[in-house]
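[Q] Does anyone have a clean structure-token version of this?
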Amino acid sequence: MSAREALKSHQRVVVKVGTTTLTYPNGRLNLRRIEEICTVLSDLCNQGKEMILVTSGAIAVGADRLGLTERPRDVVGKQAASAVGQAMLMQIYQRFFSRYNQEIAQILLTKDVIENEVSKQNARNTLKALREMRVIPLVNENDSVSTDELGFSENDTLSAYVSILSDSELLINLSDTDGMYDADPKQNPGAKVFREIPAITREIEELAGGSSSKLGSGGMISKITAAKLVTERGIDMVIASGEDPAIIWRLLAGEPEGTLFIKKSGGNVWIPSN
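[A] Here you go.
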């Protein structure tokens, strides 16, 4: 069975969506896309899948609600915007998920929860209990109290830890890129996407963010870090575009979308010829 075919059998799946997936370029929420995400996840739950959603967006929602012209940059401003945005974001998700009679729950985490054995086990127990109740956990960093010392800095790493805590089989990382390329596609029209990466080698890490890399963006660096965390623990991960949430269905049908980081090491990186 190929690595892509194996995705069909994965039952416990974490889906991570970033702020750029959930908002328009002007910073306002893309309600249509959020609704589509809720539709896909609810349908997969109806199929018997166990879904977890790691969602960004609270600060952006709060900033918009407060009438701020831009996202706050200071810690206190971010915390205040998040406190307002978390409540609104959950209301929006609740409204869409309720159309399909799908129950959801909110879990807010900070890094110190993961680093403490007791609180980490409590988080694991909560995820397990919700799974058994067929409830979709909506996980986000608790930005309203988080600081640089307590924070994850981005939700790529958070989604990796949630995947590990929940003993999931697959992490689908939806973002503004449709995979990892062998060169910057914005600068090189001939750049090719990696469809499968059997092992995260030094070459792959340097391509994502080495000192000589032309692709050195924090976004891809954090995704590679997340991929290392989960693949070393027997969890597959896919980086794919969040533009069309229906891609989640296609990935779980084994279609060759995005870049698949395979949980088993070894082999050579394959780049398509066209």
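[Q] Thanks! Anything notable?
[A] Residues 210-218, 266-274 have pLDDT under 50 and may be disordered.
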